[in-house]
């Protein structure tokens, strides 16, 4: 079995626009993903393959990962300005033979966190995204159990078996240091290069998001203060909150109809 | 069998030149740097004299990441309100074979280290060397690092780990460390549009200016500097350590006061601080130099206190590059000859003695002390600017006073005895002449 | 309004023509990659007997802060790794000084 880790070459000094090899690295989230992959592989004797999509300079992060224990490295030679779906498709092709694909939940250079989801969609793998806590399998057959962050402080517990794309948050694991000999060997590592000539991804036509106009009545009141209060006061309930208990299908329908009513959907 | 032939600790100018020289001599070289990339830990004033690179990288000036070529050198003497400026301009310095150049160290050191890689050395960054390994006879034969599985053995270790050199100290090559041999350099990198810099400093294209300043350090013994980069200016001060705390003035306050001086303020008006930095300088030259050779070990650059800091000269990078190169060559020779004991490595000290590296130091031996002495620091700037002020002040209807009278009166006002003046003049003449 | 007239209107002397920085703003111009291990530690007990307080004035990063009870509060995070503090300190054992883990600490950009 092979475990893949996707690493994005980003500016480690926190600047988003400067591509300067000296200041580049990979995000804490990617570091955590690599650490988990290495831990899983230690238990199962799997091979770890690290993948990045970017120019020659990006090979530095691959060598770094090799130094820390990964076995193979692939660089996808592709312009990083492509959107996430295109990048994900290219990565998916390179890692389609892998069983587990680890990613950081999103990169710190204004990443949207969508690449892992696109990869899962491309490969029809299960996905477990945005994990905050992970317990690695104890035996060959046991699953990875994990906690996923939901809105409002809630957590979802997941069991991951079989082929899956997993993305983790940066705080979940501290990446091990490379050994000195590991670093020296990594300098000599051969990096496989995949060129992507034709990127055939259907990206749906997009247009700027523009909610429909909706009439809002002018506030009424005798004094200006009253009118301002009317618009801004949150101390009294405006009455939109509503909890319903429905089957998933009806719940979805209700949500869509409400979104229409409020102008978010046409 | 050792892991490698030669280990170079520190990828500053000394380390990279040592690595280039040793790799070119056909040795296996590992160059270890604690920063995430070479130059990331290194700060200096701003001017490099790279001619020594001719030997290792003949076409260096076509590739080195240079900001501006120095065509104007000024020495400024500041009193509280006045300034005497001795300014020399040579446009010839702006063309091959060039003289000095401003460059950012994170650029320059990184480039130089890449030249070492191109020559065949192996560069390992993000790794701090923590100590030395010795064989049964006590000969140094490798290093320990802060990495897991981090020991590395070699025939020769070259310590180019800069001013704090814990390697040279661990090897017992230094006498007790005395703070008064060091100065603290602090600087601000200030951003200004290129066109504004060109106009204010009277230069164009990639011509640059180097200003060394005496006085203007708020009563703390030291000096100041201003260097032009393409679209930034480096303004900094160099401060004698033990005096610093006695004056109860913090380093950044001293820079701020220098920036407020009427002769400096117009040069930097409207500039924004984009980086603040600090670093030590081994200032005392020959008087503080350690032994530079031990069994299996050579020391080069600031680690060996080879920086030349003598008032109007502040040169360390060229001394580091030269000593590093000689260390790399000597280490390779000693290995080939099969003797890497201290005796086998002595060609290094010989080379240092024969070249500018130690010749300049011997010549200028007394200058650092003279320049940092209380008289030169606190009395002479006022004395000299006082003389010039009166020579050029027209106080009609009074006739001009005679120069001799001005000299005598200003000397008394500054509180300098004739004896001291003569003595300092002689030291200066002997040192500089 | 031109800089010149602004200055005149506000009675600002010509010699403060750049923005004075707070120390925090100054230190924020430098990049520090912080490691969880403190590479320098200060033994407050040794400092209590120290009258010179050299470090407080000399540390270019202003990391030594005297406390009201005669001790020293020290933060290692924004350190230039210059070595000034251990050089000027006369109290044996007050400062334990090492370099940070490789790859961490100060990262200069345009120095
Ligand atoms: C304020 C100031 C102004 C100066 N102005 C000038 C000037 O205008 N012109 C000039 O020529 N010189 C100038 N100098 C002097 C010059 O900077 C030095 O002489 C020169 O940098 C010395 O080079 P080096 O290679 O010996 O040491 P460094 O440049 O200090 O390099 C040492 C290297 O070793 C690394 N290192 C240290 N310890 C370890 C370890 N344990 N493990 C791994 N790596 C380690 C460091 O990270 C660093 O990269 C100035 C210095 C200062 C402080
Ligand atoms: S660190 Fe040293 S100089 Fe600073 S207060 Fe403590 S004893 Fe004094
Ligand atoms: S090494 Fe320098 S910057 Fe760091 S604490 Fe000591 S004096 Fe301050």
From TrEMBL, chain A:
SMART domains assigned: ETF (SM00893)
InterPro entries: ETF_a/b_N (IPR014730), ETF_b (IPR012255), Mft_EtfB (IPR030982), Rossmann-like_a/b/a_fold (IPR014729)
Domain Electron transfer flavoprotein alpha/beta-subunit N-terminal: 15-203
GO molecular function: electron transfer activity
Stated name of the protein: Unannotated protein
Organism this protein belongs to: freshwater metagenome
Automatic annotation (TrEMBL), chain B:
SUPFAM superfamilies for this protein: FAD-linked reductases, C-terminal domain, FAD/NAD(P)-binding domain
Keywords assigned: FAD, Flavoprotein, Oxidoreductase
TM ranges: none
Domain (FixC-like C-terminal) ranges: 370-430
Pfam family, one: ETF-QO_FixC_C
Keyword Oxidoreductase (UniProt): yes
Names of the cofactor(s): FAD
GO function terms (MF aspect): oxidoreductase activity
UniProt protein name: Unannotated protein
Organism: freshwater metagenome
From TrEMBL, chain C:
Keywords from the named record: Electron transport, Iron, Iron-sulfur, Metal-binding, Transport
Keyword Metal-binding: yes
Boundaries of every 4Fe-4S ferredoxin-type domain copy: 38-69, 70-100
Gene Ontology molecular-function annotations: iron ion binding; iron-sulfur cluster binding
Xref: InterPro entries: 4Fe4S_Fe-S-bd, Fd_FixX
SUPFAM superfamilies tied to this protein: 4Fe-4S ferredoxins
Keyword Iron-sulfur: yes
Signal peptide: none
PROSITE patterns on file: 4FE4S_FER_2
Protein name, as recorded: Unannotated protein
């Amino acid at each position: 079995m092979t475990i893949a880790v996707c690493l994005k070459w980003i500016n480690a000094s926190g600047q988003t626009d400067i591509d300067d090899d000296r200041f580049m690295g990979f995000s804490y989230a990617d570091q955590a993903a690599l650490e988990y992959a290495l831990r899983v592989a230690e238990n199962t004797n799997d091979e770890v393959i690290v993948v990045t999509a970017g120019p020659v300079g990006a090979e530095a992060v691959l060598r770094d990962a090799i130094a820390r224990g990964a076995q193979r490295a692939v660089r996808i030679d592709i312009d990083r300005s492509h959107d996430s779906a295109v990048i994900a498709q290219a990565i998916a092709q390179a890692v389609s033979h892998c069983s587990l694909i680890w990613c950081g939940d999103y990169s710190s250079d204004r990443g949207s966190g969508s690449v892992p989801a696109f990869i899962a969609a491309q490969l029809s793998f299960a996905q477990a995204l945005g994990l905050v806590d992970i317990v690695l399998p104890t035996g060959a057959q046991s699953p990875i159990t994990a906690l996923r962050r939901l809105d409002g402080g809630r957590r979802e517990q997941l069991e991951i078996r079989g082929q899956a794309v997993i993305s983790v948050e940066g705080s979940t694991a501290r990446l091990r240091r490379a050994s000195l000999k590991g670093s020296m060997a990594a300098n000599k590592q051969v990096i496989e290069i995949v060129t992507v000539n034709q990127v055939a991804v259907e990206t749906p036509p997009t247009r700027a998001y523009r909610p429909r106009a909706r009439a809002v009545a002018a506030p009424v009141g005798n004094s200006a203060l009253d009118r301002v209060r009317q618009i801004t006061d949150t101390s009294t309930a405006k009455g939109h909150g509503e909890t319903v208990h429905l089957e998933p299908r009806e719940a979805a329908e209700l949500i869509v109809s409400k979104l229409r009513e409020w102008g978010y959907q046409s | 069998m050792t892991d490698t032939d030669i280990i170079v600790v520190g990828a500053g100018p000394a380390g990279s030149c040592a690595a280039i020289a040793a790799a070119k001599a056909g040795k296996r070289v590992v160059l270890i740097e604690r920063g995430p990339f070479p130059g990331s830990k290194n700060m200096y004033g701003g001017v490099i004299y790279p001619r020594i690179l001719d030997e290792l990288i003949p076409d260096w000036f076509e590739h080195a990441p240079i900001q501006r070529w120095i065509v104007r050198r000024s020495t400024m003497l500041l009193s509280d309100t006045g300034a005497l400026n001795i300014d020399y301009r040579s446009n010839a310095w702006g063309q091959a074979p060039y003289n000095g150049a401003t460059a950012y160290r994170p650029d320059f050191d990184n480039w130089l280290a890449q030249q070492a890689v191109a020559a065949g050395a192996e560069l390992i960054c993000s790794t701090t060397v923590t100590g030395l390994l010795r064989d049964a006879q006590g000969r140094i034969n490798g290093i320990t690092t802060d990495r897991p599985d981090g020991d590395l053995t070699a025939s020769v270790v070259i310590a180019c780990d800069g001013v704090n050199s814990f390697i040279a100290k661990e090897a017992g090559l230094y006498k007790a460390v005395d703070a008064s041999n060091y100065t603290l350099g602090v600087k601000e990198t200030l951003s200004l549009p290129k066109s504004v810099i060109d106009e204010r400093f009277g230069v164009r294209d990639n011509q640059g200016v180097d200003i060394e300043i005496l006085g203007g350090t708020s009563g703390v013994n030291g000096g100041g500097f201003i260097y032009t980069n393409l679209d930034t200016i480096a303004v900094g001060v160099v401060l004698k350590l033990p005096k610093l705390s006695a004056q109860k003035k913090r380093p950044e306050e001293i820079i701020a006061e220098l920036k407020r001086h009427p002769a400096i303020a117009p040069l930097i008006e409207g500039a924004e601080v984009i980086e603040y930095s600090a670093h030590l300088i081994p200032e005392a030259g020959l008087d503080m130099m350690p032994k530079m050779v031990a069994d299996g070990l050579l020391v080069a650059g600031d680690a060996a206190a080879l920086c030349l800091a003598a008032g109007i000269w502040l040169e360390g990078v060229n001394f580091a590059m030269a000593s590093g190169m000689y260390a790399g060559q000597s280490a390779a020779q000693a290995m080939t000859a099969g003797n890497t004991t201290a005796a086998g490595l002595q060609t290094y000290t010989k080379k240092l003695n024969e070249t500018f590296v130690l010749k300049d130091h011997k010549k200028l031996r007394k200058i650092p002390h003279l320049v940092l002495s209380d008289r030169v620091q606190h009395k002479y700037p006022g004395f000299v600017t006082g003389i010039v002020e009166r020579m050029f002040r027209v106080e009609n209807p009074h006739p001009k006073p005679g120069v001799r009278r001005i000299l005598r009166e200003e000397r008394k006002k500054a509180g300098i005895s004739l004896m001291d003046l003569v003595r300092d003049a002689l030291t200066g003449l002997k040192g500089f002449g | 309004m031109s800089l010149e007239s602004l200055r005149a209107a506000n009675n600002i002397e010509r010699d403060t023509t750049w923005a004075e920085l707070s120390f925090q703003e100054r230190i924020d111009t430098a990049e520090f990659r912080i490691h969880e291990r403190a590479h320098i530690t200060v033994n407050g007990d040794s400092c209590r007997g120290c009258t010179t307080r050299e470090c407080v004035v000399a540390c270019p990063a202003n990391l030594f802060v005297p406390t009201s009870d005669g001790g020293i509060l020290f933060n290692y995070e924004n350190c230039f790794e210059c070595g000034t503090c251990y050089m000027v300190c006369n109290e044996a054992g007050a400062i334990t000084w090492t370099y940070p883990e490789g790859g961490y600490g100060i990262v200069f950009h345009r120095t």
